[in-house]
Specification:
The complex is a heterodimer of chains A (about 350) and B (about 190). Helix content of chain A is about 40%, strand content about 10%. With about 350 residues, chain A is mostly helical. In chain A, a hairpin with a 2-residue loop joins strand 2 (about 85-90) and strand 3 (about 90-95). In chain A, helix 5 (about 195-210) packs across helix 6 and helix 8 crosses helix 10. The longest helix of chain A is centred in the first third of the chain and has 24 residues, at about 15-40. Chain B has about 190 residues and is α+β, with helices and mostly antiparallel strands. Chain B is about 20% helix and about 40% strand. Chain B has three helices and ten strands. In chain B, strand 7 and strand 8 (about 125-135) form a beta hairpin. Chain B is globular. Chain B starts with a helix and ends with a helix. The chains are: A mainly alpha (about 350), B alpha+beta (about 190). The interface of A and B includes residues 173 and 333 of A.
């Protein structure tokens, strides 16, 4: 067989002009289709970005559903203040501590977008802050004496009754299931004593209107006494404490009701502290009550550091909400909460390291 | 026969000592981590208490060395080594630059940068930041003397393989020398696989 190329002058073997034109047209058409297909391909980086955005949205959604605390359904009356959603799950319900539609509508009405400006957030984001205090702040009871180290008077109790959620920040650490099923509910806000009752009530309401409301709901449900202690309560190694949660560690969880009712006492040295600051301390101690309630505090193998870490973490999560509404962070206690908050922004490891260093 | 068994037993015991998981021998003053994100080996001074930790809220493995308490009783010198994934859950790389920037944003107000540098370490580039700041009085249980404390903290970040390592040493600035020397000793002996 002859595989050599035909000579152009050989009749019948060469392409005519029309055949050549047809071939060029065909090649051009194929190239054109390929080019079209290429340019119609989805933009890969854009698709990846979209996928990543979708993952971020999923994470936010997961976060919103993760921030929840198991509560028994019969306490839901208190927990439902503000219209938070409750869903029954076996013998315990879950309360999502995200703002309800009702809360959001009320907040939008109180703070239209034009009234807000952004502050720099230590983590690089921005936090919304009302330009002026809520209208209720203009009226109300007379101002209390200024707190030590603070020039501005304390805000009125009315102005403290609701938080303006600045942003979705640190997630609260929720407790487990109630380990005291036989402990009857009291369903009362049990702020006792003679000193600082108003400040503690304001602090309680602040926590109750924050994303940490599951903590105050638990305190309400069991009627845990909250008061300012006296000097004897804060003698010795407790003298440096802002507050403490007291329970009987010898009684295992779940045996009827606590023989010695747990309580939270605040150091009278902080009697004149801003209720927002007292509220942060209340979140810390209420987290310990949450640990008592789910039995983890009494667990003999429980690592104390984890309890403290969770209490500091929740305190930081609350401070994340409160810090922009406190004003200048200048009192030692405010600076302490700010330090804990900033360590928490670096994560669990950094917070535990800080706690290790200062304990 | 017994003469041969004894050396063999000793050799086996030594071998077991070498390969047993995450052990820190005070006598040898060495640490050999076996946790996936903390396969480090280093030497540290006698007298420092060692504690391992694992993240509950986020993935990390850490080992902390606790040194002397300061004279004021407000701060314990420490060296903390933490290993965490070099990628965020969404796949974003945790570069030393990004993490250091996040760390700097989280520093207390008024913190002063003493020094910052980038240098080769363990076959990669490490980013180091030394800061000093005033720790406010920390009101806590057992704190009979709440007082401000000047603190100096040295932080080194490096990524090796799929792990971001954070090496940190901190102490009361007035009594920082022993902790700094301990950290230098640790870094000189540090082996990151």
């Amino acid at each position: 067989m002859d595989f050599s190329s035909p000579r152009p002058d050989q009749p019948g073997n060469g392409w005519s002009l029309s055949e050549k034109l047809f071939a060029v047209l065909m090649v051009g058409t194929v190239l054109g289709i390929l080019a079209l297909l290429h340019f119609r391909k989805p933009d890969r980086p854009a698709a990846e970005r979209a996928s990543r955005d979708a993952k971020q949205l999923d994470k936010v959604a997961a976060y919103l559903t993760r921030v929840e605390t198991a509560v028994s359904p019969d306490s839901s009356g208190k927990m439902l203040q503000g219209g938070a959603t409750v869903s029954a799950a076996g013998d315990a319900g879950t309360i999502a501590v995200r703002p309800s539609d009702e809360e959001l509508r009320a907040l939008q009405a109180a703070h239209p977008s034009g009234e807000q400006h952004s502050l720099r957030h230590p983590d690089g984001g921005s936090v919304a802050r009302p330009e002026s205090p809520p209208a209720a702040a203009a009226t109300g009871p007379a101002a209390r004496p200024p707190a030590p180290g603070r020039d501005t008077p304390l805000p009125d109790a009315d102005s403290l009754s609701v938080f303006v959620p600045a942003k979705i920040g640190l997630a609260y650490q929720a407790g487990g299931r109630d380990a005291w099923p036989s402990w009857p509910d009291a369903n009362q806000r049990n702020i006792t004593g003679t000193a600082g009752v108003e400040s503690l009530a304001a602090a309680f309401d602040l926590v109750d209107s924050s994303r940490a409301r599951a903590l105050t709901a638990a305190l309400f449900r069991k009627g845990i006494a909250i008061s300012f202690g006296d000097a004897a309560d804060f003698a010795g190694e407790m003298s440096g404490s802002v507050a403490f949660f007291q329970s009987d560690p010898s009684q295992p969880a779940g045996q009827g009701r606590p023989v010695k009712p747990p309580e939270i006492k605040f150091n009278p040295a902080f009697l004149h502290e801003d209720p927002r600051v007292l509220a942060a301390a209340l979140v810390h101690e209420a987290t310990h009550f949450q640990q008592f309630l789910d039995g983890s505090l009494q667990h003999e193998h429980a690592w104390h550091s984890d309890h403290e870490c969770d209490a500091w973490w929740n305190e930081a999560a609350f401070w994340d909400e409160a810090r922009t509404q406190v004003g200048p962070i200048d009192t030692p206690l405010e600076q302490q909460f700010e330090l804990g908050y900033r360590a928490t922004l670096r994560g669990e490891a950094a917070l535990k390291t800080l706690l290790t260093a200062i304990q | 026969m017994r003469r041969r068994i004894l050396p063999l037993a000793c050799a086996a015991a030594l071998l077991w000592t070498a390969v047993s998981p995450a052990r820190a021998s005070a006598a040898a003053r060495t640490y050999a981590g076996t946790r996936p994100m903390l396969r480090l080996t280093f030497a540290y001074p006698d007298g420092w208490r060692l504690a391992e930790d694992e993240g509950r809220l986020e993935p990390y493995h850490a080992v902390r060395l606790l040194g002397p308490r300061n004279a004021a009783g407000t701060y314990t010198a420490y060296i903390a080594l933490t290993g965490r994934p070099a990628e965020e859950p969404d796949g974003t790389p945790r570069t030393t630059g990004r993490i250091m920037a996040k760390y700097r944003r989280a520093l207390p107000d008024g913190a002063e940068v003493v020094s910052q540098r980038v240098y080769p370490m363990a076959g990669t580039l490490a980013e180091e930041l030394v800061v000093s700041y005033l720790l406010p009085p920390m009101h806590r249980h057992g704190a009979t003397a709440a007082a401000s404390t000047p603190v100096t903290t040295r932080t080194i970040l490096l990524v090796r393989g799929d792990v971001l390592y954070e090496l940190e040493q901190s102490a009361d600035s007035r009594e920082a020398a022993p902790a700094a020397a301990a950290f230098d000793q640790l870094l000189a002996s540090l082996v990151i696989p």
